[in-house]
Amino acid sequence: TQTLSFERIPAELQKRIANFLKYRDAFRLSQVNKQIKESLGMSTIRLPSAIPTKGIWAGSVRDGDIPRRCRKLPFLMKNRVHTVLLRGMYQDQGWGNQKGRFYIVASGAGFGHRVVATSPLANHGETALKLEFNTVDDDATYTLWYKVGGGGGHTLTLANLTMQLIIFDEPGLCISKNFHALNSRKALGVSLSYHYILLRSSARALLAQMEREENPDINMASFMESTGIDVTKRSLLALDQIASSMLNLGNYSEIDVEPSEESGTDIEIRRQCFPWSPAAPSGNPPSPQREVDAIMALEPDHEILEVDIMDEDVEDMIRRAMRED
Questions:
Q1: Are 177 and 96 contacting, i.e. CB atoms less than 8 angstroms apart?
Q2: CA distances in angstroms from 84 to 180, 213, 288, listed in the order given
Q3: For a surface tag, which of 80, 168, 272, 293 has the fewest beta carbons within 10 Å of its beta carbon?
Q4: How many Cα atoms are found within 13 Å in the side-chain-facing hemisphere of 214?
Q5: Which residue has the higher pLDDT, 161 or 62?
Q6: What does the alpha-carbon distance between residue 73 and residue 71 come to, in Å, rounded to a whole number?
Q7: Predicted confidence band at 223 (pLDDT cuts at 50, 70, 90)?
Q8: What is the pTM of this model?
Q9: Higher per-residue confidence, 304 vs 318
Q10: Secondary structure of the chain: what % helix, strand, coil (to 5)?
């Protein structure tokens, strides 16, 4: 019988296989040999401030136990993302029962809604928040949810939230290298649309010159090199992808620009970044019921009788999780 080594599998299929591994295992796989390392190109990038970094919620007596939607998570080059890592600090009101937690809910036409990551219950003191999930479903959207807790007096506080992407990079890790080069020069930001148009146009102009076997324009080439971008075909193609993705991120409809420390108070930040806060006069907004059902199914005090929005495999997964609790 013939055996097929991993190196002989087409690169796209290698990435699909690696996508079903935890990111640490995928990194280990990429270190087996140089050929696999080049093929998978595992690397990391940290998203600029495209998500709110802080917030506080209070749970009412009547409906504090109902999970609530915070916002959809933005992505760069989603077809390249292996794993998303959300990191921050969180805590509850500092006394009494612990009820607050965060969730990531995946939504897609093929499977409805399912919870892909859940935080531990918030502690009374500030604790590290670590949420991570794999993005096997290319067409899915991912949303951050939270639950404060009912009964009165409960709060949930979030601070220093960051979003890091584990990606399948180009050979030579050109995407992450260029991304970090731009970031180190503070050349990344959601609101810099004209900047990304200029970068993309310059990259495409240099690529066109290379295709025609002309010498690259010395001014554009010098500008790229001063920014830390190599003037090679691979590097410029990667820059084109970064600029296009950042333009799409800038058009992301749910992004709120967070005021600086000098220009706004904590209350203003809460109002701008989150749908509801103790400072806001209006009540809690309604939560989409199907996503709520998916989250409530994971709670140990809610028996699963019927989960019509999930397939049988997901139902079994949730039941096993409840038994383990």
A1: no
A2: 17, 40, 24
A3: 272
A4: 10
A5: 161
A6: 6
A7: confident
A8: 0.74
A9: 318
A10: 35, 20, 40
Quickly state the pLDDT bin for 252 (edges 50, 70, 90): very low
Tokens of 233: 């075909």
Long-range Cβ contacts of 25-34 (<8 Å, 24+ apart):
26/82, 26/83, 26/166, 32/6, 33/7
* Rounded average pLDDT over 300-317: 37
Question: Which CA distances in Å does 143 have to 90, 104, 113?
Answer: 18, 6, 10
Residue 37: DSSP 8-state: H
Average pLDDT, the chain: 76
In the block, residue with structure tokens 């993309």: 200
CB 19 within 8 A of CB 40: no
For residue 153, CA distances in Å to 98, 176, 270 come to 11, 45, 18
What's residue 313's pLDDT? 45
Residue type, 290: R
From CA 271, how far away is CA 31, in angstroms rounded?
Answer: 46
Contacts of 262 (CB under 8 A, 6+ apart): none
Would the CA dihedral through 289, 70, 87, 242 be positive or negative? positive
Contact 105, 71 (CB under 8 A): no
pLDDT band per the 50, 70, 90 thresholds, residue 73:
confident
Model pLDDT, residue 10? 87
Give the number of other Cβ atoms within 10 Å of residue 274's Cβ: 20
**What is the distance between the alpha carbons of residues 236 and 309, in angstroms, rounded to a whole number?**
44
Give phi and psi for 278, each to the nearest 5. -60, -25
